[in-house]
Structures are given as structure tokens and as C-alpha cells.
Amino acid sequence: MCCSTCSDRKARRGHFLPDRLWLRKVNETNRKGEKYLEHRILALCDPETDYAGHLSAFLQRDREFPWEVTVYTGIRELAEAGAAEIDLLLVAESVYAPELPVEANVTVLLNESGLVRWPSLKNVDKYQPAEEVLKALLEIYMEREESCYPRLDLAEGARLIGMYSPVRRCLQTTFALTYGQLLAEKYRTLYLNFEHYAGIPELLPGEKGKDLSTLLYYLKADEERFALRMKLLIQKKGELDYVAPAYMGQNLIYITAAEWLQLIGKLQESGEYDYIILDLSESMQGLMEILRKCCRVYTLVKEDAAARCKIEQYEQILSLYEYEDVREKTRKQRLPLFHRLPEQMEQYTRGDLADYVRKLIEEEQGQALQQKGKGAW
To answer: What is the pTM of this model?
Structure first.
């Protein structure tokens, strides 16, 4: 399973199944748990060892996953192992029985048949993408009456890359998405769009009621569980993570600078990302303060007189309000004429624009390597 468990059952039966020694290595790795502040056990019982081993590895890679996963090929093996108290038992439908020889605080069925045979149990579709299995487990976890839950130690905060230009129709969003896609090939990257009318639902689709506005609501309503709830909103395009832009974007004007900074700070502190791409707009409060938080700002420019005047006025305001540090970290880019731009986001990593942006990233990282001895700026 590369990042998905969606192969059908027949295909999986033809796969090579690793031996139990391999599964023991998975469990030994998972049992280390040195980053956990508190241990809770998720016992995964599934006779399809290939599936179980890879799903376990995928879940444990998630920094906010609140369980330590142990893998068993069946209920009897679990009972004989004498496992510690089980918080969640995730059991394949093929080995489940109403009378289990083990106890768990919560039992969740990995549904293989598509039929709900035990409606009293939580059912999770076994053969959906692994990301969706993760989200389903997190939703089940948050439904429980827990005020405090185990978290992983936080890594160094994510670096912010701001995209902002006062010049309209300068390809800022296309540039930002291309930059994010290419960066995500090597680093964990999140893209956020702050425009009131992003107009890109075809490029970045999202479920109704699950967009940037919802992320802000989670921050205000349930700050303690924000990192977990955030995962329910994350979508993917290729390797790039994103939260869908706010559909009712005009409501964003009421979000204060302090609220934006709190949100961005929480995302940085989550430990989930190396880089966060901020596709910014002047119609949001606190724009200058957000730009100040960025390690790099890209400002796209044009050569016509009106565009030059806008850039000059913008730079004058930066100086007037003592945001010289923003000017210093800003890289102004005049894009060359591209004969053809990709129409689908899946194509953003190819073509002239992608080659142009890839060189920018290489230049930035080359300079950082010389200055700091690191491969990331």
C-alpha cells in the first residue's frame, strides 16, 4: 500500500504475504513509542498480513495519531499474546465474532463485505484509501468523551512561504500551486488560499462544509483537539495537502489579524508540515503581519505602467509602516511569457512554468546550503 488500501480483495489475495517475523518487526517498531506522552493501544486484527502491516505503518507515520498500533493475524493470537489494556480493537469482518476472548474500550469493524451485519459496531470500509481509514478512526476517537488525549512531541515549526502581489491577474495562484506541488515532492507541504473568491473548486475540490471557514471554526470551538480535527479537512492533490478555500469567502473579512496568526501558528506547531504555502490577499486583516512571519515572500510583477505603480505604492507602504523586513525577504518575480499553461492541477509539475519554478526552488535551497549548511531555507 503506497498511500492507499484501495486494491480490491481479489487482487490482494494474489499478493505476496510477508511472514510473521516481518509483522513482529512492525510491532517492535510501533512499541518503541518514545515520542508518546501517553500510551494507548490499538490492536489491529486481520489475517491479510500484507494489508495489516502496511496499514499499521501508515497510521503510525501520522504525528497526531493517538494510538500505538500492534498487529495480529487473528483474535486468538491477540488473546494468547496477553496484550495490555486495549483502547481500540480494529478487527477484520472475516475474523470477528460477537463473543470475543479479549476486551477493548471500543471495537471497530473493518468492513469487507459492504454489508452492515453488526449495526451496533462502528464500521469502517476496509478497502477505501488509507487516508480515509485514518480520518474515520480519528472521527471515532473524537466522538468519545475525552478532554485529554495522547499527542506526539512537536517537531520544529513549519516554514511559511507567502505569495502576495498587489498586481491582479499575475498568475499568483497558478504560481503558488505549482510551487507547492513541486515542493511537496520532497517535503511535507500544505497549501492555503485566502482569497475571497478563489474560484478554483475544480482544481481544489472540497466537501460541503469542509473548507477554510470550518478550520477557523475548529480553532475557536475546540482548540484542544484542533490538530486532530484539522486532519478531517485535509485533501490531497498528488503529494500536496490542502484545505479547500472558503466558499463564502467574503466572510473572511471579519477574521481578525490575531485570529489568522493564531491559526497559522497552530498549523506550524502541529508538526505535520515542513512548509506551508500561503496564497494571500489584501482583503484579509493582518496581511503585513502574516508576511512578516514568512521566511520567503514571492511578489509577482508585470512591466506595464499600472502594475509598476501598484508595486511602488505597496513598497512605500511597507516602508511607511516599518515593514522593511518584509521587503528584505521578498523576491520579486516577473514571469516570462508561457505559450501554454496547464489546465489541470495534475499537470502543474510539468511544462514551462514547472521548469521555471523548479529552478527557483533549487536556487533558494542552494543559497540556504551555502549560508546555513542546510538543504532548506
So the answer is: 0.65
